[in-house]
UniProtKB/TrEMBL annotation:
Residue span, DUF2231 domain: 7-153
Keyword entries, A-Z: Membrane, Transmembrane, Transmembrane helix
InterPro entries per the UniProt record, alphabetical: DUF2231_TM (IPR019251)
A Pfam family hit: DUF2231
Leader sequence segment: none
Official protein name in the record: DUF2231 domain-containing protein
Naturally occurring in which organism (per UniProt): Nocardioides taihuensis
Transmembrane domains' residue ranges: 13-33, 45-64, 84-102, 118-139
Amino acid sequence: MFDTINGIPLHPLVVHAVVVLLPLATLGTLAIAVKRDWRLKYGPLVVAAAALATVLCPVATSTGESLEEMVGDPGYDHAELGEMLVWFALALLVLSLALVWLERRRAASGDPDEHKTLINVIAAAAVVAALASSVQVYLVGDSGAKSAWGDAASNSATGD
């Protein structure tokens, strides 16, 4: 896999895609978990965002390892947290896909109560997964920013 584009490390570029797509998928999952009418209309878009974010997580990890070889170790926390992010994204993807799929089955059957309990359980699990993935994205990003910038921002703010 290539490590740079025009001399720019690929890792920050891929990471920014994940940092945009995964929170969007999170917000979308929260929306379709709460608003049943939106599952059919916006569900496929939410699933697509979650799928793309999930696919890009291992790419971000791989490019991060390449960047580590160029500039040094970012710290244990960032690398470990980044490697775990794919599992949070995968849970979000599976649950949002299950919500959309079950809602399509219910709509096709014409029975508004079909799979009602199962859908409610999956919707609740999707909310938990969405919140957990948001926290994980924050933790990975915060540790990455600290490893990249260190005390540079606080030193410039205090005039040191």
